[in-house]
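INPUT
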Amino acid sequence: MAKKKTTTRRRRSTKADREFISEAEEIVERMRNDLADLTDQCSGSGDVDPELLNGIFRSAHSLKALAGLFGFEPIQELAHRLEDILDGLRLGRVVLGMPALTLIEEAVNVFGSLLQRIGDSEALAEAGDQITDLSNRIETATQQASPEAGEFDSLDLDASLLRALTEYEEHRLRESLERGRHIVIVESTFEIISFEEGLSELSTAIREIGEVLSTLPAPGETPESQIRFSLLAATDLSLNELSSRLSFPSATVRSVCRARSSAEGTSDAAPPVQPVCEVAPEVPLQPVAHETVRDSENLQSLKSISDTVRVDIRKLDELMNLVGELVIQRGTLGDIVSSLLSDSKTARIGSDLSKVYKAFDRKLKGLQASVLDVRMVPLRQVFEKVSRVLRGLRRELDKTVRLEIRGADTELDKLIVEELVDPLMHTVRNALDHAIETPEERIAAGKDPEGCIKIEAFQRGNHVVIAVSDDGRGIDTARLRANAESRSLVGPDEVLTRQEMLDLVFLPGASTRDVVTETSGRGVGMDVVRSNVTALGGVVDIDSTPGRGTTISMTLPITLAIIQSLIVRVAGQRFAIPLNSVLETMLIEESDIQRSEGCEMINLRGDALPLRRLASEFELNESASDGREFVVVLGMGDLRIGLLVDSLEGQQDTVIKPIQGPIQTVDGIAGATELGDGDPVLVLDVASFVEDSSRGREAA
Amino acid sequence: MSDPGSSDGVDLGSQAWDDLARTARSTEDGDEQQEDLRQLLTFEVDSTPYAVPVERVREIVRIRPITPVPHVPKEVLGVISLRGEIVEVIDLRLRLALPPTDPVRSTRIIVVHTEDGKVAGILVDAVREVSRVAEDSIRPSTNSGTGSVEALCVRGDEFVSLMDLDRVLEIHAEH
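OUTPUT
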């Protein structure tokens, strides 16, 4: 019965929990490995690699920080204690032996079992006592007396040098002495201007034959342009061997071991002193902590709980690029196949090759789809982030608002999702601060006192639409206009349509507010939202009804990676147009074109479709028209325009690459692509064309 | 008549460039203890020698089709593809306010990068050689009209203009 309860609770772990678990697991796993190595070394030769201890220390530290970030206090607390004892071990304050190692092991095991029970608050509470007990024992072990002072009397070292050593360096010196290593001082003089380089070369040379314990500027007379350094080092070699093996011209080596200066014994000749390992290695390493964990869970702990791999997005980009290049090669291969097929002499080989080509094509499409799929992440994470912030703001602004989220499973390219957080946050804040009225105002307006903000995501063709709507007061266009007029962005006599009025929101500095708050109203916001979304190849639309509410929708491409493009030709030059924005293409006669206020348009099934000529947009020499032209109808969000081009050259898979050089952003160009013949082809930035056109009338 | 392309190291494909760079490096190792030397790639524009530090040169390629880019200043000729990377090409003649000419056999694109990682191709009339010059033979330039030359370097009886690449690549979009 109790067991069943546990499972249902476990299933309730949130996205944040899972994120924490996947990251924490990695850390705990690393600790486990390092600890195993450390235990081996300690019970074997007794010669312990200090980096292992440092590594475990760093892991404990990261775990503490991570647990703190996600608010898992028991784990944070235990990690903190662990950090203490590890620091003690690192500095030699605590004796490195089985008692300490057993405590660390216990802690690591507790972490492991805690991670499995995250989201199960009852089980976590049960573990509380166990953690406190373990923390106390670790604390006791940490506070053991540190070794005696005055131990370096046997060394021919300057007292000032000894004082300059950090606690850690001192500990390493002590360790080296215990292992019967030779302690030497290597001194060298460097030119001030290049001493960093020389010093690092010298350190590297020493590291090949021993350990650098400390690097200190050396006292003594030096010419002004030079600086002298003493490197305190420990080595298993004798002084003579050392001098001959250390091939560094300007360095002098001096032994500082008074007692052993004549002994040529290396550490394997003189048996290493082992005061550190007191317990036989076969002592069972799993006491207390594990007794409380049931056997089945014990087995489980060996398996990873989350089955995700965290990958650097740049690695995915690389993979994507490779696939992109393969796709381009496939195009070339296709051309070869068709030319072989068209000649009767080679038709046989052609048809064989064509079969191979088709199989290759299918596999490649599969590969392409899988790679794209790996990059896709659901919007849920972003939405949850937004809703967290919103909950905080709600309290601060004293408004009652409920947030409705729909379509959180809609997937988008990881890179786009990352870039979406800010614009989305801005939009939602605006809605909360500007749009939603206070409960009193709402009651007075006959509305539900509780406001509502809806975030909705859905896929539309090759785009994803994210709409943020509220049931607030709507945008006060008159005020918006007054604000724009006061800043001379709109003339007082200009006639604006309702939509054009609403679009004023996207002008920099636009505001309907007189009072600036922490949340918004400073006039930065919607223009930033628009430029962020535009940079991703998307558009922002706004719709608002006074008294009823506002909807802001962002339309974004699903991915920025491989896309299908329509290749067009204008004035002899080829351009690529991302196919996800092409609604249709058609052939028209010159006489179909109509004019209004100097703008060209055609009648597209009863609607006026504004036209833009690509040649004149890009100041290319217009080729002599034969009276027929192609129109590529582009659509983004709710906007439509027709682009006039000379000819259409078919569809191709393209990988959009950024342009490198002094001028990285060009109006109307999103990047460039290679089509297999080596010549770059520019890719149009459809969003900028469509948007320019919608604002074009004001500018004209 | 000898082929102008191969006689004096003008014809530098990327392979040749690698060899050259390697040779330059190995000769340097030979007399390491000598005074401070800088390695420069010398090239010609309008029959005048110019140079850039070799460590800023990524490769040298022959002239190839350049795709023009709209709305950019005229010295930006367009973009080329370097194994899939799209890189802008700047006509150094126009950048230095010199009269334009058509490409010739020896015309090359030197692909350079700035300290902050910006990459660009610069179109030059011919590539000459990689040479090592003593630091003390370099004099700061005081009268560079376009600000593109940062120093002059005495080579035998001629002056080689050392380019300030960061300035050369400082071109702003037209609006």
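end of record. Chain A has a mean pLDDT of 77.
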